[in-house]
Amino acid sequence: MPADSELALPHTWRPLGPRIMGAVLLVGLFAVSAVAGFSLKADVKAKFSGSEKGTLLFFALLVVVLVHALTRSRVEVRADGMTVVNGYRRRDFDWAQVVAVHMPSGAPWVTLDLADGSTCAAMGIQASDGGRARAAVRQLRALVASHGG
């Protein structure tokens, strides 16, 4: 693995834990729903109205949309700046806009300090990933320092 300052650009960090959790959740939900659906007797299945089936479908799609939002989080770095995607929100930053990178003990994910005094959560690097997250924070700090942030 290259040293922190030798990270090849462009580079993308994605959280591993939430992606695994999302896959397990969706597979488990599908399996439980399939088993429950196949185990119902025909007369019970016939009692479900169209609106009840629609409600079940709505909640299944809602779970898929929420899991997709969590698993698409990422931090992308390029020579000209970085992009932070949290759920369905995307924010683009020039390197000059990013002042510091923080992930204090107990924090769930990285926080970026911005030049305008605000902060931005970067859910693409999550503390639940352990050593992988700590290495990503070191790399991102080195990039911010080397690009004049």
Please, could you describe this protein's structure?
With 149 residues, this protein is α+β, with helices and mostly antiparallel strands. It has 4 helices and 7 strands; from the N terminus they run E-H-H-H-E-E-E-E-E-E-H. 45% of the residues lie in helices and 26% in strands. The longest helix has 24 residues, at 16-39. Helix 1 (16-39) packs antiparallel against helix 3. It has helices at 16-39, 42-46, 50-71, 131-146, and strands at 11-13, 74-78, 81-86, 89-94, 98-102, 109-114, 119-126. The chain has one domain (12-149): Roll (PH-domain like). It has a 4-stranded antiparallel β-sheet. Strands 5-6-7 form a 3-stranded antiparallel β-sheet, covered by helices on one side.
Write a concise keyword list for the protein shown above.
149 residues; PH-domain like; three-stranded antiparallel beta sheet
Q: Which class of secondary structure composition applies to the elements?
A: alpha+beta
Count of alpha/pi helices: 4
Average pLDDT confidence is 92
Helices and strands, in order, run as EHHHEEEEEEH
CATH topology name, in short, is: PH-domain like
CATH architecture: Roll
Largest beta-sheet characterization: 4 strands, antiparallel
Q: What percent of the residues sit in helical stretches (DSSP H or I)?
A: 40-55%
Q: Pick out the low-confidence regions.
A: none
Dominant shape: elongated
Task: Indicate how many domains the architecture comprises.
Answer: 1
Strand content: 25-35%
The Rg value, from CA coordinates, equals 21 Å
- The tally of beta strands, per DSSP, is 7
Beginning-to-end CA distance, first to last residue: 24 Å
Strand order in the largest sheet: 1-2-3-4
CATH top level?
Mainly Beta
